[in-house]
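Q: I'm a student working through a structural biology exercise. My instructor gave each of us a protein and asked us to get a predicted structure, then write a short paragraph describing it. Mine is Purine nucleoside phosphorylase LACC1. I'm not confident about reading structure output yet, so if you can add a plain explanation after the tokens, that would really help. Here is the sequence I was given:
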Amino acid sequence: MVEAVLIDLFSLPANSQNNMQGLLHNTLEAIEKHSSIHAPCVYVMCCQRQGSERKGEQEFLLPALRSFQSLNRKLEVVCAQTTAAALYTIKQRLDEKDLSIIKVIVPTLRKHLMKVYIDHLFTAVYQFEFEDLQVASDCENLQISEHQNEGQTLPSQDVALIQSEIQMYLESLPSLKGELTILRSSLIPGDIFLHGFTTRTGGISYIPTLSSCNLFSSSKRRDPQVVVKENLRRLANAAGFNPEAFHRVKVDHANAVCIMGKTEPHSYDGIVTNQKGVTLAAPGADCIPVLFADPVRRACGAAHSGWKGTLLGVSMATVNAMVSEYGCNVKDILVVLGPSVGPCCYKLPHESAKEFHRIDPKCVRQFDSASPYIDIRRATRILLERGGILPENIQDDSVTDQNQNITFCTACHPDKFYSHFRDGTNFGTQIGFISIKD
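A: Happy to help. First, here is the predicted structure for Purine nucleoside phosphorylase LACC1. I'll explain a few features afterward.
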């Protein structure tokens, strides 16, 4: 069942207040008579004319709305100077109410345009139905009709203009939740490598569990790729790397490693390079983002290590790739474990806990319980040391100086980090990143 209706009056002429009022009234009346549409919320999208105040535009549209106040619907007029701004504002209203099924009533000539905006600003979480709003040239007569001209597509130059409009609008938005903050390790030499671990502040993502510097988009979350791209642009500006030379692992919760410059695997949880200016990144929202740096051979790597990847040895697989590809000596490689869920919070079923117990009994707390607490950091450190990494070349939560520690528990610090364990399926993602300076 449709949960919301969006009426696109953005491009229609408003030669007079009465003209726009009449048009809106007729549109709502047509919707009311159209039995296939039933929704609790109706959003009317209008263009804010240059020199006019948004409040003033809403006020002169109110007479057209008053006769519909008795309906079991909430009507809201959204005025903005661009379609991107208006539609993104409506997206925020939908997300506040957790609405996902939307009927879009749009002038016939605007439908394909609107679909491009929606494709960029929304994800597969949302379902859209489209109906054509045919408006006569005098803007007095209208009718709603089903799905016309389905085969048409916009020219590529029009799509590029829409993308540019969206990007400019997102760049204009203020940062949320405070300044963008990057955690850095003193173990990795700053004269050779650029690196850091992100926190959740300083981006534009507004959904509570994703706010504000979410750095991953998927079909199951409400943050679109364009928002994540803007968050990444802001991070790149703050950190000093090129977002166009940014490579994030394609998570599979396994132990495959990608060698930059060679054929890219379909999925992988580790990535290594010796190319300057290329930024490698691993996500984490409980799983460990692990960074690797060899200041002697000037090579680096990043790995995503969840409980499955830890057991499969993804960190040592990344080390081994650096050794085999770039001639690194395992004793020269520095390893830093980023923010991740700690043994204070993380539980696994007993069968899975047995695997960690085999690595070292100290990796499991309350082993006899149905869901023991697991220390994936300790397990990672043990496996790295067994592989030849020097203990003093690993930084994790065993560091006692809290000014130096960067391996905080993500679940314990909701103000600083995202956590799948804590926030559920619509969770945000932070990253660890590293590159070799030019």
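A: Here are two points you could use in your paragraph. The first strand starts at residue 4 and ends at 8. Residues 355 and 379 are 10 Å apart (CA to CA). It's a good idea to check both against the output above yourself.
Q: Great, thank you!
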